[in-house]
Write a structure and sequence with these properties.
By secondary structure, the chain is of the alpha+beta class. Helix content is 26%, strand content 33%. The strands form 2 sheets. Strands 8-7-6-5-9 form a 5-stranded antiparallel sheet.
Length: 186
């Protein structure tokens, strides 16, 4: 039996809606008050649901296990009161990791210069819906990517999935403190 899933991000293009969006709206104010930003909420499973919440520290410092535990306790309390998920579920709170999903428009500027994979709901003129290459940033609300076949421009609103690719360069940047600190762009 296929597994149902819905992903949510603060950005409209990568927001799946439904229960995950409801959960994100419920937990975001508390997470922000605790100094965290929600990166993604993912609700999966048919028989037993799994709620995955990816978060990062708003100050850009790295998430540690204690941060995940604190956020997990706060989220559990909110979900116990609001009860948005029928039946039993597993809660998983984690950092987005080095090869993180790109869910917000600002992420594409923040991680410009690193390799990424993009997937769109709409095919380009050549029939492609998936690309891999180096992020070049944004042109308005269009994501620019340098691929082996040249530069592509993908409207943010058409993206269904985007993530950084784990490369030696990305690992080195993280180890040397050059991994982009969390930056809010209003």
């Amino acid at each position: 039996m296929p597994e149902a899933s819905e992903a949510v991000a603060p950005a409209p293009a990568l927001s799946g809606g439904g229960k995950a969006a409801t959960i994100e709206r419920l937990i975001t104010p508390s997470a922000e008050a605790m100094g965290f930003e929600i990166v993604r909420v993912l609700l999966t499973g048919n028989r037993r649901a799994r709620l995955q919440i990816m978060a990062e520290r708003a100050d850009g410092s790295g998430m540690i296990v204690d941060d995940c535990a604190r956020l997990s306790r706060a989220v559990s309390a909110i979900l116990d009161v609001e009860d948005p998920i029928a039946g039993a579920y597993e809660l998983e709170v984690s950092s987005p990791g080095i090869d993180r999903p790109l869910t917000r428009l600002a992420d594409f500027e923040r991680f410009a210069g690193f390799d990424a994979k993009l997937e769109s709901m709409a095919a380009d003129a050549g029939g492609r819906r998936r690309w891999a290459g180096r992020l070049l940033g944004l042109d308005g609300e269009t994501v620019r990517l340098a691929t082996e076949d040249g530069e592509v421009a993908v409207p943010f609103a058409s993206l269904t999935k985007a993530k950084l690719v784990l490369t030696d360069e990305l690992i080195a940047a993280a180890q040397n403190g050059r991994y982009p600190a969390n930056q809010k762009t209003e």
